[in-house]
Design goal:
Largest sheet: 7 strands, mixed
Number of strands: 17
Structural class: alpha+beta
Order of helices and strands: EEEEEEEEEEHEEEHHEHHEEHHEH
CATH topology of the largest domain: Aminopeptidase
CATH architecture of the largest domain: 3-Layer(aba) Sandwich
Strand order of the largest sheet: 11-12-14-13-15-17-16
Strand content: 15-25%
Helix content: 25-40%
Number of helices: 8
CATH superfamily of the largest domain: Zn peptidases
Number of domains: 2
Distance between the termini: 62 Å
Shape: globular
């Protein structure tokens, strides 16, 4: 059987340079649509069962975040449900290289476990089977895909939870699965109380076009959505444009924007300390949330993360800074690793969909701890 490599599917991304010799398969990552960003890859290999293969991503040195390759291990799957790490992954001389001998006729390799638009559709449909859940379509993407927003709860405090502004950060929607599963658990007392106290507005995927296209950071127009807040237009970033309009009509007391970080092997929160007029109350609310999230999840920590922006220097085109400034709310960015949690490593899976979902479920305890002061 002839070795064949294909990425012509939802979130697929790879360019085949040569695949005639299994010991020297040369590939490159396609750039994001109308952009120079790239790092996400996802492709299928067939015809390589029991064949020792060496894969090389020849343009890894010019990827968006080259620090993401250090200590990184490729993920692979035979069934597209269970994803494991390929130990023999290394970054050498500007190439990301991994050695692997597939055990089956078909195997998928990816930067992280993908989250397809079909699974997104199933997530929305599953949530709507519960009483008290409704769906608002806030607008459409440039390709006409819906910007889905779930409405859950009946409280007078509104919290916005959004994910996947950067489509290649698929762990963000796995996190959403865990968050929604617990929020809708009819036997969970924390979730039951939060549904009484809070109205949640939840956008599980802010960038459906980029997700389907296999982009790392941009939508189909080449816009990095997390640099479009306050400057968005219907022509270049309708995804952000429609969410801001909905937020203006239903202002948040809390906004959580869920992401993944290529380089840092930790789960952490970035706040809005650099915005003009950052208040003592915002600082106290953030500190309380961080303490509560750390207590709720052994995978969350506060020692490692981004440095704090100097007062008044925060970029207001980023969601967290924009929402904190515009709505005077507690606004945060959650970052999860593409690699592993260095504080609690998993040799088989590294940071994974299941662990992302567990972290998503644990956030309810942190929200419950601070909701009274927001």
């Amino acid at each position: 059987m002839t070795l064949h490599i294909n990425a012509a599917f939802d979130s697929g991304n790879i360019i085949v340079e040569r695949a005639d010799d299994p010991s020297d398969i040369r590939l490159s990552i396609r750039k994001d649509t109308k952009s120079d960003f790239y790092q996400w890859f996802h492709f299928r290999v067939t015809g390589a069962k029991a064949t020792a293969c060496t894969f090389r991503l020849t343009n890894a040195a010019d990827a968006a975040f080259t620090g993401g390759w250090d200590g990184y291990r490729v993920v692979a799957s035979y069934d597209r449900e269970s994803w494991f790490r390929v130990d023999a992954t290394r970054y050498e001389n500007g190439h990301l290289i991994w050695d692997h001998t597939p055990e089956q006729d078909s195997i998928y390799y990816a930067y992280f476990a993908p989250y397809s638009m079909e699974r997104h559709a199933e997530l929305i449909s599953d949530c709507l089977q519960y009483d008290g859940v409704s769906l608002d379509v806030l607008g459409t993407s440039l390709e006409g895909q819906a910007i889905d927003c779930l409405r859950i709860g009946e409280g007078d405090k509104t919290m916005w939870i959004i994910a996947r502004q950067h489509p290649g950060e698929s762990m963000a929607e796995w996190w959403m699965e865990g968050f929604l599963a617990r929020l809708l658990d009819e036997d969970d007392t924390v979730a039951m109380q939060l549904r009484k106290d809070v109205t949640f507005r939840i956008v599980p995927n802010m960038n459906p076009d980029g997700s389907r296209a296999g982009n790392l950071r941009t939508n189909i127009a080449g816009a990095n959505l997390n640099r479009e807040w306050g400057v968005s237009t219907p022509e270049t970033s309708p995804e952000v444009h429609c969410v801001i309009a909905a937020m203006d009509a239903d202002k948040p007391v809390l906004c959580l924007d869920v992401h993944g970080d290529e380089s840092l092997p930790y789960n952490f929160i970035a706040g809005a300390e650099g915005i003009p007029g950052y208040t003592e109350k915002q600082a106290n609310d953030l500190a309380a949330f961080l303490t509560a999230y750390k207590a709720a999840s052994p995978d969350f920590q506060t020692k490692h993360g981004y440095g704090l922006s100097k007062p008044g220097t925060g970029n207001l085109t980023m969601c967290t800074n924009f929402t904190a400034h515009r709505y005077d709310c507690l606004a945060m960015t959650l970052e999860m690793p593409f690699k592993d949690n260095a504080d609690a490593t998993d040799a088989e899976e590294g940071w994974s969909p299941d662990r992302s979902a567990e972290l998503g479920g644990a956030v309810l305890d942190a929200i419950a701890d601070v909701v009274g002061q927001l």
